[in-house]
Write a structure and sequence with these properties.
heterodimer, A: 11-stranded mixed sheet, about 45% helix, elongated, B: 10-stranded mixed sheet, 6-stranded parallel sheet
Chain lengths: ~400, ~725
């Protein structure tokens, strides 16, 4: 019997890219996809509703309205769903990832032939570079992506160095290979580390690696200025939330570039221009090979999405459907997860208001101290001033006179 | 700098202690909030000792000072200082001692400052309870399991006078059971509470997000974090007990909780006690086996899908089963399934610590004569097999790592002569360094670690030596050698004339080629071909940071070889070599030759240059047209005229201003804190090097000039005038 695979993707304002990656996954051996729609304000909800009708019963959507970045908490909540269903494997992907196969296999074939002892399957990631005028909102534009980046860097550099060198134009983001990722048996899902690059190190897992000629994932990390801006905003969220510079370093770097008005230059260096690359700036531009692998394999998904995009317009005016599968168990679990997330929400709110209260008390205390310090400073200034010193004999004489008068009266 | 602020708010029947952490590193500020939700009331602590422990490992690894907005106890100040030293001693590459300051330091006076006496008396103790075998052992031996009539001597039970007066147990939600996982924690709490009730111990819980987005190594930091929770009860209890995880006879080094360091987590108001290290895990199982009603509630496993239960199959579950088996209890009721011998064959370990756990079972059984059984024989065989596997892995791993200091090999021939001045320069380093030097040192350190990590994967290494080059190249060789020694990377020297002698080499070796400018259009007479030939002899060839011009066919052919790994020392070279498929970027290893020196503050300028060293090229790479321009008679092309690196560096050291078109003269000048005026030779060699290696550092005293400037300053003159 074939293994059952659940796809899991969390996305925010990534339509139609999300539609293509979900469609491609479903067309390539994934049985069902669970989409967490993270507070999207674009066409995601509507698009998913239409896509659900194209894949009846195979797409579940969890609407997450919390604006905060809670990937780990959400993933943990989702694990409750995963554990309650009979999926053998969980494939965690992002909207900008599309798997590519060699030897006409699909994911189900690959995973079903794994030995029962194998619980983690590792696969490689290829970075693809988009044309400079790429419009990520137009489905057919994805068929123009034919430049595969060569990760030419063979020695690992720390994210701090990478960021600096990329900003200085000494290095290109695509020079660095993207770390490989893993597909896990469903019982290992809750141990996945953020980004699905590994399972938690406390877990002993039997891992096998799949060769890039068999299965690889195409990644479109940088797909136009608009998306760079979106990632930059995400970087700011990470920075504001106090994450270390290594956590989502690319997004944090994009925010810093954006702040310094260098995002445009960055995009020039990280996309394929119509004309030849500038030979004088080879270090700053990507080294790529031409390939039709991506366009050939996602063509069918793109075509379907193209149709759906037109169909979506017809439901544009209707409100987004209550998107849960007509299945009592799924609905119940989605409701439970939603409830958990709301609880997290309210706990965060509570914490924030307490912090606000504490901060305002501290502010009050600080301003009182400031007031006291300035009063002390004033008195010190008076005591050390020349006029105070000059008038000292007068004050002494006055005091002496007072005492004399008091004595005479007494 | 890490600034800590504490706050407490009432929350239902409990309180929430909030620690706000402001961290400022390199001008960037981040804020993190750690909450501790207590399910019962605890008053605000007199001191914030425990909260320092919450961030202690973060501070040690980032080298940050901790500033506490509140009070600390004097004992904590002393202990935490020693704690930092201890962890640095155990992990010198990871941690630095931490400097701590506070608004107030309270000097403990036992006569007046004993808050516990009003609550639990002067000896009250609290135990951190995970539900596992160790904490059950500690709870049972100290606490009120007094109704147990059979309390045999010698297995750990303590009399009233010997024991700590444990009045409460605390479980932390957010350590072993994840913060978000309320269901499993509720189950675990229920089981534990039943057992604790049997020992007359009330249970409280603390829920904390301290491990959410954690960057500390938990195996190192857990003792500090457990202690940070115990300190929050310092108004009620004098002692906080942590159950030992390994016996004195088999100590774990570099582990978060150890008998030798746990007392350093103490402050004046909370004494942290490491308990039970006098007993192995099997001995602990023996004590617990005497209290059968506790057995169903023991929880040892953190690997199962349900964190509230024992999975029965993981390494720790099987080890615990064997612990009980060794004391004659094959199927304790804390496991749902029965033990079978085939479980022994499934044991796998990833480190010596885990292996020791099984060895301890064997030791205990031998000592107690329970070794005459099938399970013992099978376990003995399994442990032997695992030990072999582990030893093999370790030796392979160690082989690729660094060799101990002192096991250094033959050095370059020039070394004996060169070293004196290099050492002298190192020792003269002033303590007050400029910002540029500080930031340059950080850059060197970051790049150095990256290169060292890469080279360690390529061992064994042979370093190409005794090759052609001017004295400027000797600076690179000297820096390469110092870098390898500093990173403790073992290598052997291989003179260039022996590099192709196949009898001397093995194909599993890597040839290291020192950085140079000998892969360019102007200089390529011997190196590209030598590397190409060497690639047939050596498994791999690594070209250390160099300048490249891939327009040269021999250079291109050489770099296209699959087993040749080139590092570029400037962005232009990097851009060129990456077009050939693989490329590394690295700083010139000459920068490791000696430490950067702080310049003596003097106002030298073009009009007041002080003592000038004019070191212009006299070879073919010079851009000065010798037919039209004559170089001043004071010129000294020291890369060619000096006989060794000492002389070369001494000459630069004696100058206030260095005027040159020689790359490594300029580089040495910058490193020694001199004023440098450079003129680019061919191909913008110096400016592109400086732009990448130094970035925008040292720009005030390192400035580019041109031929007209040389003329205007009289360093060169036009012929025929």
């Amino acid at each position: 019997m074939n293994d059952r695979i659940l796809g899991y993707v969390m996305a925010r304002n990534e339509w139609p890219m999300l539609g293509i990656s979900v469609t491609h996954a479903l067309q390539s051996g994934v049985d069902e996809v669970l989409v967490v729609n993270h507070a999207s304000t674009d066409a995601t909800a509507r698009g998913l509703a239409v896509l659900q009708s194209s894949f009846p019963g195979r797409i579940q959507v969890l609407q997450l309205d919390n604006d905060e970045y809670l990937q780990r908490a959400t993933t943990h909540a989702i694990s409750a769903i995963v554990e309650n269903f009979t999926f053998d494997w969980v494939y965690t992907f992002d909207a900008d990832e599309f798997f590519l196969f060699g030897q006409s296999k699909n994911l189900c074939e690959i995973l079903s032939t794994q030995s029962p002892e194998t619980n983690v399957v590792r696969y490689g990631i290829e970075q693809w570079v988009t044309p400079q005028d790429f419009n990520w909102r137009v489905a057919t534009d994805y068929l123009r992506i034919i430049d595969r980046a060569n990760g030419t860097q063979f020695a690992q550099l720390s994210s701090e160095i990478l960021e600096q060198e990329i900003i200085d134009g000494n290095l290109n983001f695509f020079d660095v290979s993207f770390p490989s990722k893993v597909i896990v048996r469903s019982e290992y899902f809750s141990y996945l580390e953020a980004g699905a690059h590994s399972v938690h190190r406390c877990i002993t897992a039997n891992e096998v690696s799949i060769g890039i000629d068999e299965f690889v994932c195409a990644h479109l990390p940088l797909a136009g200025m608009e998306r760079l801006k979106m990632k930059s905003s995400q970087g700011k969220l990470l920075i504001d939330a106090g994450f270390p510079t290594t956590h989502g370093w690319q997004a944090q770097m994009l925010w810093r570039l954006d702040r310094d008005n260098k995002l445009g230059e960055f995009w020039q260096n990280h996309s394929i221009p119509n004309e030849a690359l500038d030979a004088a700036r080879l270090s700053a531009t990507p080294k790529t090979d031409r390939s039709l692998d991506l366009t050939n394999q996602i063509r069918s998904a793109v075509q379907l999405m193209n149709t759906i995009e037109k169909e979506k317009e017809s439901v544009a005016s209707s409100p987004p459907a209550a998107i849960v599968k007509d299945d009592a168990q799924w609905s119940e679990l989605l409701l439970l997860v939603n409830r958990d997330l709301q609880q997290i929400d309210s706990a965060l709110l509570e914490r924030d208001s307490a912090l606000l209260e504490r901060d305002s008390a501290l502010l009050e205390r600080d301003s009182a101290l400031l007031e006291r310090d300035s009063a002390l400073l004033d008195s010190k200034l008076i005591l050390t001033s020349t006029s105070w010193k000059i008038t000292a004999p007068l004050r002494r004489a006055k005091s002496l006179a007072r005492r004399l008068i008091a004595r005479l009266r007494g | 700098m890490i600034t800590l602020m504490f706050d407490q708010v009432n929350q239902g029947s409990g309180v929430r202690n909030t620690l706000t952490i402001k961290k400022k590193i390199s001008g960037r500020e981040s804020v993190r909030v750690i909450d501790f939700h207590h399910d019962s009331k605890v008053s605000e602590p007199i001191v914030l000792d425990g909260y320092v422990l919450s961030v202690f490992f973060d501070a040690m690894s980032s080298g940050s000072k901790i500033d506490v907005k509140g009070k600390l106890s004097d004992q904590a100040m002393r202990n935490f200082s020693a704690l930092g030293e201890a962890w640095k001693n155990m992990n010198p590459n990871l941690y630095k001692p931490v400097e701590i300051s506070a608004d107030h330091v309270i000097h403990f006076d036992p006569k007046t400052s004993s808050p516990w006496e009003q609550t639990t008396g002067k000896d009250g103790a609290i135990l951190t309870f995970s539900g596992g075998l160790d904490s059950h052992f500690t709870a049972a031996r100290h606490s009120g399991a007094h109704h147990i009539t059979d309390r045999p001597n010698g297995i750990g039970f303590l009399s009233t006078v010997q024991s700590y007066n444990i009045a409460q147990a605390v479980m932390v939600h957010g350590f072993d059971v994840r913060y978000e996982n309320s269901k499993d924690f509720t189950d675990l709490r229920k089981n534990s509470e039943t057992n604790l009730n049997r020992m007359n111990l009330p249970l409280v819980t603390v829920r904390t997000n301290i491990r959410v987005n954690e960057t500390d190594d938990w195996e190192h930091s857990f003792g500090a974090k457990v202690s940070s929770v115990l300190h929050q009860f310092s108004n009620r209890f004098k002692y906080g007990l942590i159950a030992s995880g390994s016996p004195y006879s088999r100590p774990l080094v570099s582990w978060g909780s150890q008998p030798s360091i746990d007392h350093l987590y103490s402050g004046s108001f909370m004494h942290i006690v490491h308990d039970g290290a006098g007993f192995s895990r099997s001995e602990k199982a023996l004590l617990i086996s005497k209290i059968p009603e506790l057995l169903p509630g023991i929880k040892v496993c953190w690997e199962g899908v349900e964190q509230g239960k024992n999975c029965g199959m993981c390494e720790k579950c099987i080890r615990t089963r064997l612990n009980f088996l060794s004391v004659g209890l094959p199927n304790p009721p804390c496991f749902d399934s029965e033990f079978n011998l085939s479980m022994i064959e499934t044991i796998s370990v990833s480190n010596q610590t885990q292996l020791l756990g099984f060895q301890n079972v064997l030791d205990f059984s031998k000592k107690n004569k329970t070794d005459n059984s099938e399970w013992f024989n099978r376990l003995q065989e399994r442990v032997a097999l695992l030990r072999n596997q582990l030893d093999q892995n370790t030796s392979e791993h160690e082989g690729k790592k660094i060799l101990p200091r002192g096991v250094q090999n033959t050095q370059h021939q020039f070394r004996a002569r060169d070293n004196a001045l290099v050492v002298n320069l190192v020792s003269e380093k002033t303590s007050k360094q400029s910002d540029d030097i500080e930031s340059m040192n950080k850059r060197l350190s970051a790049y150095g670690s990256s290169l060292a990590e890469f080279l360690r994967t390529k061992a064994p290494l042979s370093l190409l030596s005794e090759m052609p080059g001017n004295i400027g190249d000797h600076l690179i060789w000297s820096g390469t050698q110092r870098f390898l020694e500093k990173e403790r990377i073992d290598f052997t020297n291989i003179p260039v004339n022996q590099v192709l002698d196949k009898r001397n080499f093995l194909s599993n070796q890597t040839l290291l080629v020192p950085g140079s400018g000998a892969m360019t259009s102007l200089f390529n007479e011997w190196l590209p071909q030598t590397i190409t030939d060497a690639s047939n002899v050596y498994g791999e060839v690594v070209i250390l940071p160099s300048e490249f011009e891939t327009e040269v066919t021999t250079v291109q052919n050489c770099l296209l070889l699959a087993n040749v790994y080139p590092f570029a020392r400037d962005a232009d070279s990097y851009g060129k070599i990456k077009q050939l498929g693989k490329a590394g970027l690295g700083l010139d290893l000459a920068l490791w030759a000696f430490d950067f020196r702080t310049p003596i503050p003097q106002n030298f300028s073009d009009t007041n240059p002080g003592n000038v060293l004019l070191a212009l090229r006299t070879d073919s790479a010079s851009k000065i047209d010798k037919e039209k321009i004559s170089i001043s008679g004071t010129n000294n092309d020291i890369s060619l005229t000096t006989s060794n690196l000492n002389e070369f560096l001494e000459t630069i050291l004696a100058a206030d201003t260095v005027v040159t078109d020689r790359l490594h003269v300029a580089v040495s000048g910058v490193m020694m804190g001199k004023n440098v005026r450079f003129v680019d030779p061919f191909n913008h060699k110096i400016s592109r090097y400086l732009r990448y290696n130094f970035g925008n550092r040292f720009t005030e005293r390192t400035q580019q000039r041109d031929e007209n400037w040389l003329l205007s300053q009289g360093y060169v003159t036009r012929l025929g005038r």
